[in-house]
Design goal:
The protein is an alpha/beta fold. The chain has 10 helices and 15 strands. The two termini are 18 Å apart.
C-alpha cells in the first residue's frame, strides 16, 4: 500500500490536491507515475465542456513499476512502462495497471518522451490513410498532434507535404519537422496557394487535426475531385455547423481516425513507440512545458490560452 497524491478537478477551471491509499491486487501492478501528458481532451473537462465535477483527469502516463502482483508475468519492479493505465486518473503520483495495458519503454528513450497514449493515437491516424507515391498531402493544424502526424508523413515520397496553421512559430516548427510548404490558413489567397502548389490538381490526402469547424471546411475545399482521402483527427465534441457539400461534391472519402477506429490500440502503440525509437517523432522538440503536480492549476491555464510558446505540457509528479 502507498499513499498517493492526486489532482482533483472540483469545478471547471479549479484543481485541488488530495491523497488516497492505493493497493494492487494479485492481477495488478503498482506504477509510480513519473510524467503524464496534458491533452486537449483533458482541457475540455477542465473547461466544463464535458463531464461533471468533482472528477479526475489525465490519461497519458509513463512510469516505473513499483510492485507486481503475484499473478502477473512479464514485468518486474523497476521496469519503465507506458500504456493505457490509470485512465482519467493519471495526474497522480501512483496508478494501478493490468499487464495488458502496458508496454515497456526501451532504455534508449527518455521516459518522459514515451507518452504511449498520444503516440498510439498518431499510429491510428497515420494508418487510417497512408500517402501514395506522388500524393499532395495537407496537414491542417500544427499543434502537438498535427506536428507528430506531419513527422510521420515525412519520407513517404509525397509530391508536397503542406502544413497549415495560423501561428508563424508553429509553421516554422512544421518546416523544421519536414513540411515542404507552410501556409497560413488566414491568408486571403490560401486556396489559390494550394492550387499553385498542386498544379491545379488539389490535395490527394488531408489530415485535419484542429477541432475547428472552420478549419475542417477549409481543408475540405483543398481536396481534389474523385476519392480524395480526408482524415478527421481533431476532437469535435461540441455542436457546430459543417457544410457537407464541401465533401460530397468532390466525392471525398472521409475517415474518422479516433481511438475507436483502431482495431488494436496496443498494437498501434507498439508501432508508434518503435517509430519514436527510430527517431521518427521529434518529441524532445514538442514537449515545451514541464510542471510539478503542485502547479497543475497554472499548467492548465497556460495550455488553455496557448501562451509562452506552448505546444505540449507534461505534469511531473
Amino acid at each position: 500500500m502507498v499513499v498517493s497524491r492526486y489532482a482533483e478537478l472540483i469545478a471547471p477551471g479549479e484543481f485541488v490536491l488530495r491523497s488516497e491509499e492505493l493497493s494492487h491486487t494479485a492481477d495488478q501492478l503498482l506504477i509510480r507515475i513519473t510524467a503524464c501528458g496534458m491533452c486537449q481532451y483533458d482541457g475540455v473537462y477542465y473547461k466544463g465542456i464535458v463531464g461533471e465535477t468533482p472528477t479526475r483527469i489525465g490519461h497519458e502516463p509513463v512510469g516505473l513499476v513499483e510492485a507486481v502482483g503475484d499473478n502477473v508475468t512479464g514485468f518486474n519492479v523497476g521496469d519503465r512502462v507506458t500504456g493505457l493505465f490509470a485512465y482519467l486518473r493519471a495526474f497522480a503520483e501512483y496508478g494501478l495497471a493490468e499487464s495488458s495495458q502496458l508496454v515497456k519503454v526501451p532504455e534508449q528513450i527518455p521516459l518522459e518522451l514515451a507518452l504511449g497514449e498520444p503516440l498510439k493515437c498518431i499510429g491510428t491516424i497515420l494508418r487510417a490513410a497512408q500517402p501514395e507515391l506522388g500524393d499532395h498531402v495537407l496537414v491542417m493544424g500544427c499543434g502537438f498532434m498535427g506536428l507528430l502526424t506531419l513527422a510521420g508523413l515525412v519520407g513517404a515520397a509525397p509530391a508536397s507535404l503542406i502544413a497549415v496553421d495560423i501561428q508563424p512559430k508553429r509553421l516554422a516548427l512544421a518546416r523544421s519537422v519536414g513540411a515542404t510548404h507552410t501556409l497560413n490558413a488566414a491568408a486571403p489567397d490560401f486556396l489559390a496557394q494550394v492550387e499553385a502548389i498542386t498544379g491545379g490538381h488539389g490535395v490527394d490526402l488531408a489530415f485535419e487535426v484542429t477541432s475547428s469547424a472552420l478549419a475542417v471546411e477549409l481543408a475540405a475545399k483543398t481536396m481534389r475531385r474523385g476519392r480524395g482521402r480526408y482524415v478527421l483527427a481533431g476532437w469535435h465534441g461540441e455542436p457546430d455547423t459543417y457544410t457537407l457539400r464541401n465533401f460530397t461534391t468532390k466525392g471525398t472519402t472521409v475517415l474518422s481516425a479516433h481511438p475507436s477506429f483502431s482495431l488494436d490500440e496496443m498494437d498501434d502503440m507498439r508501432r508508434a513507440l518503435e517509430g519514436l525509437y527510430r527517431g521518427v517523432f521529434p518529441m524532445e522538440q514538442l514537449i515545451t512545458h514541464r510542471f510539478p503536480l503542485e502547479e497543475i492549476q497554472t499548467a492548465f491555464e497556460i495550455m488553455a490560452d496557448g501562451r509562452d510558446g506552448y505546444i505540449k505540457g507534461i505534469i511531473v509528479p
